[in-house]
Amino acid sequence: MAGGPLLALDGVSLSRWRGRQETQVLASVSLELRAGELVGVWGQRGAGKTTLAMVAAGLQSPDAGSVWFDSRDLALAPRARARRPHDGIGWVARNGPQSRDPQRVADFVALPLLGRFSTLRARRVARALLVRVGLAECVGERWLNLSDGERVLVALAHALVREPRLLVADEPTANLDVLQRHEIGGLLRRAAVEQGVGVLITVPDMAALVHADRVATLCAGRLTIAAEPPADTSPPIPLAGRQAPGPTVEIDADAEHDW
Known about the structure:
Elements: E1 7-18, E2 21-33, E3 38-42, H1 49-56, E4 64-69, E5 72-73, E6 89-92, H2 105-110, H3 119-132, H4 148-160, E7 166-170, H5 178-195, E8 198-203, E9 214-219, E10 222-225
Parallel strand pairs: 3-8, 3-9, 6-7, 7-8
Antiparallel strand pairs: 1-2, 1-4, 4-5, 9-10
């Protein structure tokens, strides 16, 4: 993790109005993240975790401060670009396909590739990535038919298919059981270690940060960075029913698949 930070938030502030009441969601937040590092942010409901994640991903502009990624200040991006990931950034969207997007899992994962590859090749890449995250059986399924855990894995595949340098995931382990939290955390950790991806995640439960290199707490809009991540005191949990997944994908461009 030599060199400068991949992502740097400096003095980021953002407020929202509810009626006549102004609430400061982020108060002069500063954070650095390097390639190959997994940083986790914990906070209670309403602490501003989602806002922080969206600002870090360039999906929302702050009122003040800078958000440096790839020599660009994302805070200066036109607000018209909001809600659309920047090049090099993967956003793990738990809400899944929008109404205009394909609803079948493989087509949704392939969606970010359609401008670069043919439809057939994009589907091949998407299917290979779904296999790697342990969802071979869900390739032809529709989003509405998936469990919460499967939806997170699909959202992760949808983000990883962009081959991002930075991966931002807002509460990817929320509403999941212990086994699923370990599975998602392990995948994110492997993306950081094996692929050199910088990973920023937010969680509602401190115990979900056992895979992190560094952790931070967000409270009343202020970010406090801890020296060490929480210790993993839970016993090892085998990922029953799944082969150990990972984000690395090897594609046979000449292989034929039925869809």
